[in-house]
Amino acid sequence: MTTICRAYLAVLSIYHVATGVVSFCFPGFALRLYKRIYACDPAERRQLTMVMKPWGALSVSAGISGCFCAADPVRYWGVVAALWFLMVLRITYRVLWRHELGEVGRIPPHRNFLNVAMIAIGVAVLGAWLLCFMMGGKVP
């Protein structure tokens, strides 16, 4: 279980650092990248471009934190829990505001559902690991 958790955290962390750097340094390219990855194509670009820099900085921070977790999830179990909670909130956002995401972000419902499913895999992996950790303090 810990190996799966560590692998997932490593991939998630690399993704966050990479997309965070791109969002912070190259927001125009980031918008095109997010259109491909998430099918997000909002009409308003100027304000969103301004938001990309702090969003990217936060993403880099989350990615670096996740790298520590990937190296030693037991030691950094609180950060694992925080990342799990972040992903639960992301699912909540995508489900509760799916109509606005479709209208403003122009994200087709099937793409939003696909993204929710991908995030749910991470929630399941990290949640299962956290449950094992909390129940016994040791995780296989």
Question: What would the keywords be for this entry?
Answer:
single chain; 140 residues; mainly alpha; globular
What does this structure look like?
The protein is mostly helical and 140 residues long. It has one domain (2-136). The chain is 84% helix and 0% strand. The radius of gyration is 16 Å and the shape is globular. The protein starts with a helix and ends with a helix.
Short summary:
The chain is an all-alpha fold and 140 residues long. The chain has six helices and no strands. It has helices at residues 2-25, 27-38, 46-71, 77-96, 98-104, 109-136.
Chain-wise SSE layout:
Layout: H1 2-25, H2 27-38, H3 46-71, H4 77-96, H5 98-104, H6 109-136
Helix pairs in contact: 1-2, 1-3, 1-6, 2-3, 3-4, 4-6
Largest sheet: none
Beta-strand residue percentage = under 5%
Helix content: over 70%
Shape, principal axes of CA atoms: globular
The number of strands is 0
Number of DSSP helical runs: 6
Q: Helix- and strand-based class? A: mainly alpha
